[in-house]
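Example S7 (structure tokens).
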């Protein structure tokens, strides 16, 4: 995915995020545990998605750019 002045990069990134969130919802234990209480991290290329199970639902807590 190359970044340029079009919205193509953004659309591809949103699609990747949606696919990863679907994967997380189907495989909640796949992410690695991190230092925060009951939360997990799932790598997605240059990004990581952080999520946690709350009241029988998986909530995305945030995402960050990986170094």
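Recovered sequence:
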């Amino acid at each position: 995915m190359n970044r340029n002045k079009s919205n193509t990069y953004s659309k591809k990134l949103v699609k990747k995020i949606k696919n990863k969130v679907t994967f997380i919802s189907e495989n909640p234990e796949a992410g690695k545990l991190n230092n925060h209480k009951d939360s997990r991290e799932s790598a997605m290329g240059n990004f990581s998605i952080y999520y946690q199970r709350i009241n029988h639902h998986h909530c995305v807590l945030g995402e960050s750019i990986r170094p």
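Notes on this example. DSSP finds one helix and four strands in the chain.
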